[in-house]
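Complex record, two chains
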Amino acid sequence: MGFQVFLDIAVVALRFLLPVYAVVIIYQCFASMRRHRRPEKPLVTLELKDTGQQVPVLFWENSIGRSKGSDICVNDPTVSREHCVLLRRQEGWLVSDIGSKGGTYVNGKKARSRTQVLIDDEISVGSTTFVLKRGDEFQDRIRPSWFFSKASNKGSLQPYKLMLLITFFHLFMTVEACFTNEVQDFTPFTIFLIMEALLWGFFFVSTVVFKRINFELEALASFMTGIGVILLVRQEIRSAYVQLIAATVGIVLFCFLVKFIENPDRVDSWRMAIMIGAVGLLAVNLVFGSVQHGAQNWIQIGPISIQPSEFVKVAYIFVGAAALDKLQTKRNFFEFIVFSAICVGALALMGDFGTALIFFATFLLIAFMRSGDFKTVLLALVSVVFAGMIVLKFKPYVANRFAAWGHVWEHAQDTAYQQARVLTYTASGGLSGVGVGNGYLKYIFASESDLVFGILAEEMGVIVAFALTFAIIMLAFYARAITTRSRSTFYSISACCAAGLMVIQASLNIFGATDILPLTGVTFPFVSAGGSSMIACWGLLAFIKAADERTYAAKRLSKHKEER
Amino acid sequence: MKRIMSRSFIVLIVTLAMVAGVCLLAFRLLTQNEQWVAQPYNGHVASSNGLAQAGDVTDRDDVTLAYTDENEERIYHEDYSTRCALMHVVGDNSLNISTAVQSMYRGDLTGYSFVFGLGLPKSLRTNNSIELTVDADACKAAYEALGYKKGACVVYNYKTGEVLVDVSTPTYDPQNPPEITEENEKDYDGVYLDNVVSSSYTPGSIFKVVTAAAAIENIPDIYNRTFECSGEYDIDGMKITCENAHGSIDFTNAIAQSCNVACAQMAIEVGGDNMTKTAENMGFNKTFEVSGITLSKSVYTLENALGDNQLGWSGIGQFEDLANPMHMAIMCGAIANGGTPVTPYLLQSDSSLLQKIGITEAKKSEQMLSTDTAIKLQDIMRATADYYYNARGLTMGGLNFCAKTGTAEVGEDKEPTAWIIGYTEDENHPYAFAVAVEEGGYGISAAAPIAQAAISSLVNNP
């Protein structure tokens, strides 16, 4: 008896350590992201030829024009409100006219498309002429975003140490999963070993093959993916393997995408193809899709069933974002709106209203970030509220979910069956959970995907569940903080909107399951079971990764060396 | 780029909305976690071994009704009848009786805490005990008086609100729960319901108390009226009948002798709207809560009534009228208290310490009747008790009491539902009671003895 008590205390102590450990890991990931990198000084400066006044060029892409919002504001009536864009690319600095009245001239020659500008070259807009100078000739201090810690702060954890921390966390979870109340065996270890091989392999490829110095974003995603996989072991071992395969595909997609969007101009030439591909995928889904649980959002290919709408999410961000000089063209924006309408419409036809809602919310984000027009966004919002009411009228099963919303306990045995159980088991877990594999929520339909927040809270405790929620929230803060440090507006917009999409999706998942919003049946990024969703999340992460200036930094350095 | 940066605040807004949602969730979790956990389907407490760590359940005199022994077995009271009598209040190992304390308060019993949840190993858990307000002996007496009949018996202290007797049949022995099969399911029909709180029956003549209240409030000269009863009364070509012709009868005697003809006439004269109003004031069509248990509603509705005939029937507790036993006891408590009832409760912990030592008053419900009407109803129910019990030599533990019986017709092939509702008039024993017996026959012969057994036990074994 005495030994038993001792053992029990040890188990409980371990259970309480895990949440603290999880918080530490998430903190370390973000501490690493917050690290200061290049000093906040201008990349180049523009010198006014007449007065010698210096204007700092802070960003990789800068708009020049008369309007106050321009990055380089020129107080000259002969300059158009949006005149031209000065941007930096692999080959150097370029200037691109964006439909100005007077035209843009480099060394007196009219710049028709993107034109290279070298140091000491002259750029003329209207009656103003700038001379391009090196950046270190400008001395003013620039205030960095609050997100970044001060340059003097000591360095954060090295990536391999972070990965070790995460591996040990997964190991503790695995040990817990081996000794559940019901079953005791070592099958979780098989999963654990395969998974760590995958994650460390990814780490190796990233640091050694691609020579990237930072890994915290990937580490965070790996951490969450691993938690999801180990939680699945005691629910359905097959799903755990499927999840692992999906994670592998997702990581490959991540690596591919980061590479693919390295050159934002290449993305532009693929834009149409991606759009057509995505529409085609939705069309195939509409024609051949099978209906599962009220929504026709699955395609069955042999033994594999996929959810095309998840992949379209990645394509959607692609199409929505663009480089600054392309952003201004009407054609680009028009294409995006048509594409959005097709996506949301197709999803509504399939009856997948949760995903349609995510797309629409993301549409609002992208539309606003591109146009900055509040009225348009409000108008779109109102029109969708009306559309939503029509949906409620004609789709009784959606209306049913609304009826149960806020009345969980009255409908605990019918329409709010799942939500009631999520709440009950969330509270049953306490702060530290009942241990991996000891939960009861896993027996409820869709618990491993739509209700995964409840499983997290029940088996790992409320603290871990909330910590992972905050990880998603911090991802959005991070994406926003790196906006101005990105190499193109393509990256800024895509990163903010990818993070925004994950925030919206996580919100619908968590709040839907816990009766703060109606249940829509979407997944929790990285943690929920679901192959397509897992792959798409890694795909979305690539946009945030690409927006970080450091991602392609190592590469650039080595290229410089070659040139010398 | 600057513009994109400033516009990206929209992502921040979305994110802050999520933060707000998370805060709301955390707030709800902090404030409602006990309610969330205490659900009958919760696997952590509902599994076969869900009571292995549970604390004791005791009655008002600290008699242990259920406890868990060192082998993690749940042991119930040693007496078979007591076990059966209290099964619906205490509950069994399963969560089948959803209103029983072992179901509703299982989280409390098993030592749930917000910090540790329900995941604490058994050796480290602390559990809580629950003390009930019921009296085990009186419950046993009521159960034995009910015998094999299906029904419900409730007695509560109308001054303090303590529920003293809550017995429902059919029942079973929680120590050896029966396996319910196709052959015996008829015997156990409705066994998982505590009829006191979860059933509503046709009230029959006990509803005349409501009709009387409506007549007092709506017919100014009601005490000067006489009704003519020839044994039957034609309205809209259909008859309302009495057992025998009461002849010329005044208001008080019409209720005391339960004259259908007179009461139907009163209901018709009062009118449907006013009848409904009085009934609803007295708690019909309303939900009551007793220690977290939501009572089955008592119903008075004329929505489907075709004319005066059915209005007349509704006035004598037939038609579509339904009455819940606990609500009937509350209604009697209201009459006894001069119009406003004290809310009953089942757990000692529901009353505060101040209340126990008499500094603050018991929790009251909404007023049901004006004091004037309540006092007039007291007189009528006293007259009714005199009329019946003095003639038949029945007593309620030697106390003065007021009552009304009912014999509710429920269909041609079934015996009527027998009822008695009322209260004792005694400073030390202020008990409101209600008894319903399915297919019992006459209220006076089938229901009254059960109330008598329960109250005698309460008076004689304090």
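Note: Residues 2-33 of chain A form the longest helix (32 residues).
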